[in-house]
């Protein structure tokens, strides 16, 4: 009769650090090109003008400026409108 010997248990597998998601630069703050504005899982916030979305849905600044958040409605494929927040970077006023 063949069998496999017992493998034991792994006890340290759930000891991971959290993903540190969330808004990193808030509305009205200055950002430089390439800075992270929002880290998110899925597209909960939409990348607007002056920003771009990376492969893991992180929103970065595409240019130097000031961060703005605007509430918008996004049309889904089913035709339903869902509320979303559009993240934008507007150029800073010249002093």
List keywords for this structure.
95 residues; mainly beta; OB fold (Dihydrolipoamide Acetyltransferase, E2P); four-stranded mixed β-sheet; 40% strand
Describe the structure.
The chain has a single domain (22-90), classed as OB fold (Dihydrolipoamide Acetyltransferase, E2P). Strands 1-3-6-5 form a 4-stranded antiparallel beta sheet, with no helix packed on it. Helix content is 0%, strand content 40%. The protein has 95 residues and is mainly beta. The N and C termini lie far apart (84 Å). The protein is built from no helices and 8 strands.
In short:
The chain is mostly beta strands and 95 residues long. It is built from no helices and 8 strands. It has strands at 22-23, 30-31, 36-39, 45-47, 51-53, 59-61, 65-75, 81-90.
Secondary structure elements and pairings:
Blueprint: E1 22-23, E2 30-31, E3 36-39, E4 45-47, E5 51-53, E6 59-61, E7 65-75, E8 81-90
Parallel strand pairs: 4-8
Antiparallel strand pairs: 1-3, 2-7, 3-6, 5-6, 7-8
- Backbone CA Rg: 21 Å
CATH class: Mainly Beta
User: What's the number of helices?
Assistant: 0
Q: How far from one another are the termini?
A: 84 Å
Element-level helix/strand string: EEEEEEEE
Spatial strand sequence of the major β-sheet: 1-3-6-5
User: How much helix, percentage-wise, in residues?
Assistant: under 10%
Q: Which residues sit in consecutive blocks of at least 5 with pLDDT less than 50?
A: none
- The CATH topology name reads OB fold (Dihydrolipoamide Acetyltransferase, E2P)
CATH superfamily: RNA polymerase II/Efflux pump adaptor protein, barrel-sandwich hybrid domain
Q: Structural class of the secondary elements?
A: mainly beta
What characteristic shape results from the CA principal axes?
elongated
Q: What composes the largest sheet?
A: 4 strands, antiparallel
Number of strands: 8
Quaternary status of these chains? single chain
* Count of structural domains: 1
Binned strand content: 35-45%
């Amino acid at each position: 009769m063949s069998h496999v010997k017992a493998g034991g248990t792994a006890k340290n597998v759930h000891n991971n650090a959290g993903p540190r998601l969330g808004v990193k630069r808030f509305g009205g703050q200055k950002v430089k090109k390439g800075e992270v504005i929002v880290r998110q899982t899925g597209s909960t916030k939409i990348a607007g003008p002056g920003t771009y979305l990376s492969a893991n849905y992180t929103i970065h600044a595409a240019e130097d400026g000031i961060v703005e958040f605007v509430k918008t409605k996004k049309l889904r494929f089913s035709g339903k409108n869902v509320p979303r927040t559009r993240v934008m970077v507007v150029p800073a006023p010249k002093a």
